[in-house]
Design goal:
By secondary structure, this protein is an alpha/beta fold. The chain contains ten helices and seven strands. Helix 1 crosses helix 2.
Length: about 270
């Protein structure tokens, strides 16, 4: 989890901050508040939006960060403050029933010329095409999947100017890894057909991630760790083989909210 938070800062927050005019940030899908807490240390004025009752409560209790329990649309309907400089949604849009409505909600949270930054699975990734249905991002909880071209089209139709798109998780699977993924996929299908998948998944998660549902054992991100972060452009991921072709397993997109009557947001 600590590696994930640092990666989110490196590949989402720091690049988006290059375009934002301020540090008022709302994270949609803020989970248990790990990232929000780190961003507070970086001087951001943060607000979380999280539909999970348990996660929202843990965020408030552990980190004392403000978190609204509900969706972005519910946050807006409740009349809470908006006009944020940055709206961040990490691996959220693939889970929502109506991506266009979700993007509109993100726009409503932002001030004019505010910045939206998202990451999501990349349907056009090398690994998705290499292993087909065995790709780990093909799962029942992912309702919509995007390619760089399709997420750009959606954002432009919803009055955003796309500033930057790049892929992350840019390492291609080896032939051996591809074979292992396909074998594992067949095993998972068998478990699913026999109704055993939920039980096995629960047992596996308890065994491998015994602390995944609590804060115990999580050491908060420090200012020193954040200060040592190199830019994403200088990271190993940015220099991995699939970077230039935007064929990594995830897409990061940074876009600016624009006035529909003034397409360049001037």
């Amino acid at each position: 989890m600590r590696k994930r938070v640092l990666a989110q800062i490196q590949r989402l927050v720091l690049p988006a901050g290059q375009y934002a005019s301020g540090k008022r940030l709302v994270e949609i899908g803020s989970a248990r508040g790990h990232l929000l807490a780190a961003l507070q240390q970086m001087g951001y004025d943060v607000q979380g939006v999280e539909p999970s009752t348990t996660a929202a409560a843990q965020s408030r209790a552990t980190y004392r960060v403000p978190v609204f329990e509900g969706t972005a649309e519910q946050y807006l309907c409740a009349g809470y403050p908006r006009n944020f400089d940055i709206a961040l949604a990490s691996t959220v849009i693939e889970h929502v029933d109506a991506p266009d409505v979700f993007v509109d909600a993100c726009a409503s949270l932002l001030k004019p010329n505010g910045i939206l930054v998202m990451d999501m699975p990349n349907i056009d990734s090398f690994n998705a095409q290499a292993v087909g249905p065995a790709w780990e991002m093909y799962q029942k909880y992912h309702i919509y999947l995007f390619a760089p071209s399709s997420i750009a089209l959606l954002l432009e139709k919803r009055h955003f100017q796309v500033l930057r798109i790049f892929s992350s998780d840019n390492s291609p699977l080896t032939i051996r890894q591809s074979r292992e993924r396909k074998k594992m996929h067949q095993r998972l299908l068998l478990l699913d057909r026999t109704g055993l998948y939920p039980l096995v998944r629960s047992w596996y998660r308890r065994r491998k991630y015994p602390l995944s549902d609590t804060h115990h054992g999580f050491q908060a991100i420090t200012r020193e760790e954040i200060a040592r972060l190199e830019s994403w452009e200088n990271s190993r991921d940015a220099k991995a083989p699939l970077t230039a072709q935007q064929r990594g397993d995830h897409i990061v997109v940074i876009a600016r909210k624009v006035d529909p009557l003034c397409p360049l947001g001037v």
